Amino acid sequence: MPTPDTQHALRRRNLSRVLRAVAEAGTVSRAGVAARIGLTRAGVAPLVDELLRAGLLVEAGRAAPSGRGRPGSGLTVSDRGPAGIGAEIGVDHLAVCAVDLRGTVRARLATTAANRHSEPGPVLRRLSALLAEVTAAIAAEGLRPAGLTVAVPGLVARGSTTVVHAPNLGWRAADLAPGLTAALTPAPGTAAAHAAPVPLTVDNEANLGALAELHLGGADGCAPPSDFVHVSAETGIGAALVVDGQLLRGARGFAGELGHVPVYPDGRPCGCGGRGCLEQYAGERAVLRAGGLTPEQAAAAHPGPGARTALLARRAADGDAATIGALRAAGAALGIALAGAVNLLDPRAVVLGGALAGLAPWVLPSLERELALRTAVAPAPARPGGCLVTVSQLGADGPLLGAAYAALRTVLEDPVSTGTPAHSPQL
Amino acid sequence: MPTPDTQHALRRRNLSRVLRAVAEAGTVSRAGVAARIGLTRAGVAPLVDELLRAGLLVEAGRAAPSGRGRPGSGLTVSDRGPAGIGAEIGVDHLAVCAVDLRGTVRARLATTAANRHSEPGPVLRRLSALLAEVTAAIAAEGLRPAGLTVAVPGLVARGSTTVVHAPNLGWRAADLAPGLTAALTPAPGTAAAHAAPVPLTVDNEANLGALAELHLGGADGCAPPSDFVHVSAETGIGAALVVDGQLLRGARGFAGELGHVPVYPDGRPCGCGGRGCLEQYAGERAVLRAGGLTPEQAAAAHPGPGARTALLARRAADGDAATIGALRAAGAALGIALAGAVNLLDPRAVVLGGALAGLAPWVLPSLERELALRTAVAPAPARPGGCLVTVSQLGADGPLLGAAYAALRTVLEDPVSTGTPAHSPQL
Questions:
Q1: Looking at beta carbons, which residues of chain A come within 8 Å of B241?
Q2: Using CB atoms within 10 A as the burial measure, which of A17, A130, A290, B327 is most buried?
Q3: Could you read off the pLDDT of B242-256 as tens digits, one per residue?
Q4: Which domain holds residue B386?
C-alpha cells in the first residue's frame, strides 16, 4: 500500500529541516534559514514560531546582515531543553556524556570498571549511577534527557534495540533494558515524574563511532566523506561501513565484523572458532603480547580508560623495539584486512578511530603499504581530497559522542513530537 | 533545494507500477491491478488506458474471476513493442539477446571470439554484426530495441556509463560508445529512421548477473533475498553486493572486486601488483593450471563459450583427481575470501553464479566448510529459508539476461516517456 505524504509528515520534515539548519549555522536570520532550505520566508515563519514555542530555538538578537534582504532577528538553538545522553560500556571502562542541540558536551563522566566476564547486572548498576549523576548535572542547567544510547563492544541484532551479544564481555543475548529502566524513569515527586520514559537504544560501538565521524567529525582536515570504512579497536576490532551517508548494518545487523576477517588463514586460532582472524594480529591483546606485556601488567601499570593504548603509544614513542615491531605487524594485518574491504566496497576513505587513532604514527605506514599494494587493480583517478586513510580527530571519544548524537537524533528528526515510543527504532 | 513531487512524476511512477504489476501477474483484471498496487479502480483506469494506447499493455480476454468484485477484462503485457537488448563481451565469447516486457527471451546469438588482447574496434564490429542480426530478428516480430546494455568483465566508473577498464581484455579506459553507435542508429530509409537512438549502457558482468538474480532469478528454490553477495567467475572473479535490493556500487563504481581480496597474503603474485589474491587460486587459469591443463589445451579441446568450465566439470565428473583437487582448493580459497565478505557485510546469502554455478558440486563443500569455520562469531539465528550459499539457476546466462533486463528497465520505470536521453543513467 502506498504511504501518502500527509500534511503531518511534511510539517514534521520541515520542522526538522529548520532546526537542523539553525543548528548547523550557529546563529542565523529567518531569511537565512529560508535560503538554506529552499522555502519562502513566509513558509519558514510559522515553523520557526513553533520551534520557539517548543523552546528548541531562541531569539539571539540581530544576526549579521546577509548578502541580500534586510537582516532579520537572529535565531539560535537553545542551550536548554533536550540533551542526548550517550553511554559507553567498554571492556574496562564506563562512560556517560550529555550533548545539547548545539552539539556541545555539557557533562561527561568516565571510570575504570572490570566489565570483562562481569554479569550485566552489576555493570548496569554502576552505569545507572553515572547516568543519575549526569542527569542531575544537566538538570541544574535546564536540560532534560531526550534519549539514551549505549555503545557496546558487541553485536546488536537488527530489530532488537536493547539485546547485546558481546563475546569480549562474555555476554550472550543480554537485554540491557531491565537493568537501565530505573535510570530512565523520572523520580517520583520531581517535576519530571509524569514525563514519558527516556527512549533507550543500544548499538555497536563502531557504528556509533562512524555516526560521530559523519556528523561531528572531519577526519584529518578532509571533509567527512559519505562513503567510508570506520575502523575502531579496543579489545576487539570493529568496523562500520558508511555508504552514501548511511550505515550499512547487514541483513541481521551484524555487518562490520572486520576483526574476524581472515588475514593469515592458516594462522593463530581465534576465540570465534576460526583461524588467522585480524583480531589475533591487531587486537589489543595480540599487540600487548607481541610487545612483551601481559594485559594484567599493562592494566596494573596504568589504570583507567585508554590506559593500554597510552602505554603502547608511550613505549613506541620511547623507541621500544618490541612495541614498535608489534604495532608495525598490527598495521600490516590491518592493511591486509582493509585491502579486502576496500576491494569489496570501494569506499572513499578508511578512517582509523577509537584506540587506533592514538597509535596511528606506528600503525599507519605498514597499513598504508599493504593497502596500496593490494588495491591497485582499479584505475587510479584523482581522489578529491586525496585522503584514502585518515585518522579520526574524535579518537577514543567517537563511540561515546556518537551515542549522544544518536540519542538526540529523534529530536532533530521530529522536533515537536507529542508522544515518544519507549524504545526508539534503530538509527 | 527540495524537489517537489510533481503531478508528472507521480503519474510516471503510477504508470510504472501498473505496468510492473501486470508484468508480474501475467494476466490480470483492472480490479486485480488496483488491488495489487493499492489504488482505486477509478484511479487505475486512465493509467491502463494510457498504457494500452502506448501499446505496452493489451486486452487478453476475460481474466479469471478474482476473489471480490466482478471480473474485468484481462490485461497482459504486449509481446510486441519494446525489447531490452543485452550484450556480453567475454574474454573468449560474444553474446546478444533480446528480452520482451514479459521477460521472455525472443532472440539469442552467441559466438566464440578471441577477445583477450584484441583492440576494442574489431571486437565491437563483431558485436555490432550480432546486434544487427538480433535487431532484425525481433523487428520481424514487431519488437523494437528500447535500450542496449553491454556486460563486460571489467570496471565501469560511476558516472561514466560507456568507458571500461578491463585488465583481462587488456582494455584501459576504452569508450565503447563510438564503436557501437552504428549498431544503435536506425538505418536510413527504414521506418525507424527518425526514431531516437537506442540508449547504451555498459556495466560490470557481476553487477548484471546480480540484477538478473534479483529480478529474474530464484536461486536454488529460495526466494531471491534482497541482501546477497553474487559471485561470478569466468577468467576473473567478480562479485556484486546487493543490499536492501539495491546494487552497492562503491564511491567510484568499483565495488565487488572479490578476485583481488587477499586470501594467502604471502602467496602467488598477481597481475594487479598484489600477492595471494583470490583470482590466483580460484580464477579459471589457476584452476586449469592446478588441474594440469594450459588454457590453450583447454580451448583447443573444446572451443566455444563456457568450454573450459564444461571441460573442468566433465573431468571432475569422470573422477580426475587433479581436477577435483584443483576445484577443491578453489572452493577453499573462495570460502576464505567470502568469509571476509560475510563478516563485513552480513548478507542473507551468497549466490554462486556464472561459470561457478556449473562447478558447484566440486567447489561447494570446501567453500562451505571454510565459510562456516570463519563466520561463527555472530550468534546463529534461524535463517529463514536456511540458504546461506546458493547456486544461481541462471548460471553463465546471468550477466547476459541481466543486461537485457537493465536495458528494459527504463521502459518499466518510465513507460510512456516522450524523450529518451542518448545515454541512460547507470541503474
A1: 344-345
A2: B327
A3: 998 899 999 888 899
A4: 218-393
